[in-house]
Amino acid sequence: MTLLCDATTSPDPDPAPPSGRRFSLRTALRVVAVLGTALPLAGCAASTSPHHTATGQGQVRVYYVAANPVLWDYAPDGRDQITGEPFDEAAKVFVERGPARIGARYQKCLYQGYPDASFRTPLRRPDSERYLGFLGPVVRAEVGDTIRVVFRNNCPFPTSMHPHGVFYDKHNEGAPYSDGTGGADKADDGVPTGGTHTYTWQVPERAGPGPMDGSSVTWMYHSHTDEVADIYAGLTGFLVVTAKGKAKPDGSPVDVDREVFALFEVVNENASPFLAANIDRFAAPPRPHLDDEDFVESNLMHSINGFVYGNGPMATLRRGERVRWHLMGMGTEVDLHTPHWHGNTVTVNGMRTDVVNLLPASMATADMQPDASGVWLFHCHVGDHIIAGMLARYQVIG
């Protein structure tokens, strides 16, 4: 299990009330007295399959997505899966709970997919997609389509969905700032707790692959109501656009057998709206000082899809199949990442490599046709990030 929950839509048995947050007064004020219902994700959560409506200009692909409170575990296996040994002293800085230390489990707010607008039970992720961890459901479209997202906010503060790359108007942007609009055009900026908003995004040619891209291009979506705090709370997902005439019915490209998604991010839990709640719930006395350097360091979770030190399921590929890797970086100035594949190579913009460069809010697509079977390391090549656990594995069979 990657979450402290069962496979049904059950409440968190011990919701902890947030008691404030020094990093953003605005965020602290918008956290309500209790965290509300925590719904399951990872092993109990969901990749969304859209509903399709044919139009003269393409399909209308309808997704149902909610932002839900979730109790997340960055190290659910309880050991360093890269070394096969118990966590060493360097790893314990991040994963060990104790006096003035939160450990590996944090209250978060994550996107989940649903089958319909009732939002009763989230879609379950198949085993092949469990490596996605705390990422939101993959949203797909073909050039010429319309994406419609019915969004429900169940988190204890306003959230939104802001897309990159696609076309949207002011009623569908999902970001509050002084833009000269008002009234209904502000309803999308921050959906209140318990509220629902429908986002409509067009997918024109300029949202699709460019001259140096393959048959699909990687974009992202994330909450932008309090952008920094929302992203550190966990509200991030991938959006993929396939070229016109090159999409399968589900929107994925016809010339790709398997897609893999990876978010490289030093998740700063110190800047999450749930920091105070996580201290109250998980840290043993004495209560930490929020400016203590050791405490701050312990809450910098160097993760791939929300997992550290190789914890979490591996993506499994087949030898010889056509694999497309979608990569994303998020965070701040420390988030300079260099994803590296052991054992196999990729092509990026027509160039052969086994390392890709990512900056915060950057996206990349890498194509692989694996020829080396086995379990292989997939990690950030930045030295400090290796020590802090930004490592995963993938498997090639056949």
Summarize the structure.
This protein has 398 residues and is mainly beta.
Write structural notes for this entry:
- By secondary structure, this protein is mostly beta strands.
- The chain has a single domain (25-397), classed as Sandwich (Immunoglobulin-like).
- Helices cover 10% and strands 31% of the residues.
- It contains 6 helices and 19 strands.
- The strands form 5 sheets. Strands 1, 2, 3, 5 and 7 form a 5-stranded mixed beta sheet that branches.
- A hairpin with a 2-residue loop joins β1 (51-55) and β2.
- The two termini are 27 Å apart.
- The model is unreliable at 1-47 (pLDDT under 50).
In percent, how much strand structure appears in the residues? 25-35%
The CATH homologous superfamily name equals Cupredoxins -  blue copper proteins
Mean pLDDT: 89
Number of strands: 19
List the defining traits of the structure above.
Immunoglobulin-like; 4-stranded mixed beta sheet; 5-stranded mixed beta sheet; 398 residues
